[in-house]
Amino acid sequence: MDKKIKKKKWTIGKISSISFGVLFVSFILYNFIFADKGSKLNVSSDKINVSEVVKGQFREFIPVDGNVMPIKTIRLDAIEGGNVERKYLEGGEMVSKGDTILKLANNNLVQNFVREETQTFRLVNELANTKLALQRNKFELKRRLTTLNYDIDAAKDAYERGAKLRDDKVISEQEYLNLKRAYDRLVSTKEIEIESQIFDTKSTEAQIRQTTETLERTRKNLKMIKGNLDNLYIKAPISGSLSSVNVEIGESIMAGQNIGQIDDLDAFKVRATIDEHYIARIYEGLEGTFDFAGETHKLKIYKIYPEVINGLFSVDLKFENELPTDIRRGQTLQIKLQLSENIEAVQIPRGSFYQTTGGNWVFVVDESGDFAMRRNIRLGRQNPRFYEVIEGLQPGEKVVVSSYDGYEDKDRLVFK
């Protein structure tokens, strides 16, 4: 009789299959729960730059370019208009104060001068003749008064004798009256002569005053026109370098037109252009430095031009100490303009990473040195060498400072 064999439930194959399934599920669960879900990228260690986070003295400054120029430039403007008759000097020459640079010709001005000069001579002669006539009138009055006084004395004697003769009945009353009338007439004539002379004298003196005032005004006009003629000679107001003469012989020049300039080479300044981003932080007295001929020299801002052109504004800086030897007009200086005092700060070197992250995050190298993890940070001020770290990094840590192109969406960089 056949014996029924009981089928085994736990065969080796079944156990193996179950074990494999459990292991597979466990692996899936492990990766789902415990494994690193962040994206990572393998990078070659020789293609990245790593720098250490340090703590030390930090000073914010910006590099700017400055051009050396004379501290004083005098514009040469024509005071009077005219045609260029002669050029005595050309641009680029050294001049001394008072040197003649140009001579202009202006016929109208010359004619005005001749006309005023003629008028002056006429008034001078007229004044002299009037004064001479006044003096002659005074002499003529004296002569007439002398004659009248003689005639009055004679008439008075005849009148007084006639009065006695009339009393003695020697002469008639009519003869006496005739003598009296002759005497009274001469006395009245003398009074009229004196009054007439006083009037003539006052009138002549008034004429003299008017002529004198007219002559004075004419002389002032003549002096002014002569000064205008002198202005046809354009001369150097200061000693220095005649940088340009922008006219040619025969050219017509208008009054007020610029014909060149003179640079005072006894002192220099530096004019720098700065990005408008810093305009609120720039003020008079702000210091800067530059290296020249192996030495460091100090500058200080003394004038700010607030007008912004193409995103830039300008400032003038003066040399704090002695002017550097061999410095020349037009020379370009690399200036470090200091925006803050020295402070103790955590900092990292500048790098290409900033163009990608904007300073909001970096890859921090693990202590093992095998990989770097993404970490959020906050940066503050900066200078051409370092960024100030406000939070997110500690001194001694290392960060990747090279370009992050292609790493924007990665959380981990694994070094190979």
TrEMBL record:
Cited Gene3D superfamilies: 2.40.30.170, 2.40.420.20, 2.40.50.100, Helix hairpin bin
SUPFAM superfamilies: HlyD-like secretion proteins
Coiled coil recorded as keyword: yes
Superkingdom assignment: Bacteria
Residue ranges the record marks as coiled coil: 201-235
InterPro entries (UniProt xref): MdtA-like_C, RND_pump_MFP, UPF0194_transport
Pfam families: RND-MFP_C
Domain Multidrug resistance protein MdtA-like C-terminal permuted SH3: 345-404
Swiss-Prot/TrEMBL keywords: Coiled coil, Membrane, Transmembrane, Transmembrane helix
Location in or out of the cell: Cell envelope
Residues passing through the membrane, by range: 12-33
Family of this protein: Belongs to the membrane fusion protein (MFP) (TC 8.A.1) family.
Descriptive protein name: Efflux RND transporter periplasmic adaptor subunit
